Structure formats: structure tokens, C-alpha cells
Amino acid sequence: ARNRFSLETELRRAIESEQLTLAFQPLIELKNGRIAGFEALARWNDSERGFVSPVDFIPIAEDSGLIVPLGNWAIQEAARTLADWDAKMGGREAPVYIGVNISAIQLMRSDVPQVVSDALSEAKVSGDRLILELTESAILGDPDHASAVLGRLKALNARIAMDDFGTAYSNLAYLQKLPVDVLKIDRSLVTDMLQDHGKISIVRAIQSLAETLDLKTAAEGIEGPELARMLAVLGCDYGQGYHYAPPLSAADAYAFLTASLNAATT
Ligand code: C2E
Ligand code: MG
Ligand code: MG
Known about the structure:
Layout: H1 2-16, E1 20-29, E2 35-46, E3 50-52, H2 54-64, H3 67-88, E4 97-101, H4 104-109, H5 112-123, E5 130-135, H6 136-140, H7 143-155, E6 159-165, H8 172-177, E7 182-185, H9 187-190, H10 197-212, E8 216-219, H11 225-234, E9 238-239, H12 250-265
Parallel strand pairs: 2-4, 4-5, 5-6, 6-7, 7-8, 8-9
Antiparallel strand pairs: 1-2, 1-9, 2-3
The chain binds ligand C2E and magnesium ion (2 copies).
């Protein structure tokens, strides 16, 4: 408990003094290998503790309410990064989106559409360049509230992805009712799929569900080329994982982006 308390205190300080950063992991269009976007992942490198994983600090941020300033900062930082990349490309719009994770607690306790709207106008980037990654629990906790929030996000042209899809309740009724654009197939189904026929069947079923509902799919946790090929054959739209790149610093992500764009034109 004491460790948890001191982690919370240090996390609060890290957020206030802007010590957190975002790492950006590429998402690749599986049918042609082109870059589609990046997922923004919070990183905390503490001077004493070293690297603290989001798996450890996000739950603490959620329990303490710190997820609101942290999550809002992530939205602003993602929008600023897009603006920065556009400027580096000489004012041409970098042809990528950034996905930002939104916690269930943040969705409940903060006016996410307002934060998104302010971040977009401040950075002068358009809403279609943001994808907000929500989990099913964020939506199922209070479906009416979630539905209203998603409607307002769609009005800003932002897109919605269901993160960790296939792990929780997978209540399929809401998928048809809510304006979801992308299903992110959880990496627990993807990474060892080639060794597990049951998982292949599940991924195939998710893919066919997505096609029926006119949604895109993104597979997480692609660690090798055979897996990438298999997912492309199954019709999966986007892929993310160490096979392509780990989460990268903003500068490395920009270098990855320009290298991908150059490779696509030559
Ligand atoms: P997520 O949104 O499902 O993010 C994907 C996680 O998979 C990331 O872990 C990423 O580094 C990892 N990953 C990517 N490719 C591979 C791969 O090929 N193999 C394996 N084994 N793992 C891979 P990370 O960065 O540790 O983040 C963990 C979770 O923390 C995220 O899961 C997300 O739920 C949460 N998180 C991170 N940043 C934020 C944030 O800014 N806000 C909120 N609310 N949650 C965040
Ligand atoms: Mg995510
Ligand atoms: Mg995920």
C-alpha cells in the first residue's frame, strides 16, 4: 500500500511537471504495407524508479482520478504532435492519424468531446486525424452517457475504436447501435494465433462480424511476418506490433513516417 501511495504521489508530480511523454507505435495497412497511423502510448521515465509501465501506472491513475489530467494531456499532446509533423512536412498534412487511449473513468469524469475539440482547434488539425480507443467496459458501464459522448465525438469527425476487442463481454448489440469505426483485436488472440487454431477461428469470426457491420479491424501484437500474412489473408485491415516497430519516440516515429512515405512512392 505504501508503494502504491508513493507511486501515486510521484505520478501526480510527473504529470504536473510534464515529465510524461507519448510513444507512437505505427499501424500498417496489411494489404499494401503502407503506414496508416500511430497509437499514442503514455510513457513515464522516473528519475529514480526508471521506466514505469503503463500497465502499472494507468490503474493507479484511474483509482486516484489522475487519469483525467493524464488522459486530457494525451489528447492535447497527440494533436500537437500531428501539427508538428505537418509543419515538418512543409505544411502538407502528414497522411496519418493518431489513436489515443481513453479510460472508462476519464470518459465518465471529464468532458472528453470538449477536450478533443479544444485540442483540435488549438493545434489546428482536423478531427478525422484522431481515433479514440475505448474499451467495452467504458461503454457498457453507462451506455446512454457513452452513446451521447460518442455522438459528440463523431460530430467532430473523430473516429472510434474498440480496444482489447475479444477479451471482455463482447456484447454485440451495442456495436450496431454505437458509432464505432474500428475493432482492435486484442493481442492475446493474435500473438500466438498460428499455434492455436481456436484463436484463428475467433479472429475469423471477429473479422466477419466487422465486415457485416461495415467496421475496420486492426490486429495488435503482430510479432512476425507469417502472422502479418495470415491476418492479411483473413481480411484484417490494419496491423500493429513489434514485427513493424515498437512504440517510438515522436522523433523516431516521424522518421518512420517519412521513410514509409518514401518507400511507397519509389
Ligand atoms: P493498449 O491500448 O492495448 O496498447 C497496446 C499495448 O501493446 C502497448 O503496451 C504496446 O506497447 C503493446 N504492444 C505493441 N505491440 C506489441 C507486440 O508485438 N507484442 C506485445 N507483446 N506487445 C505489444 P503499453 O504501451 O505497455 O500499454 C499498455 C496499456 O496501457 C495500453 O494497452 C492501454 O490500455 C494503456 N495505456 C497506455 N497509454 C495510455 C493512455 O495515455 N491513456 C490510457 N487511458 N491508457 C493508456
Ligand atoms: Mg489502445
Ligand atoms: Mg489494445
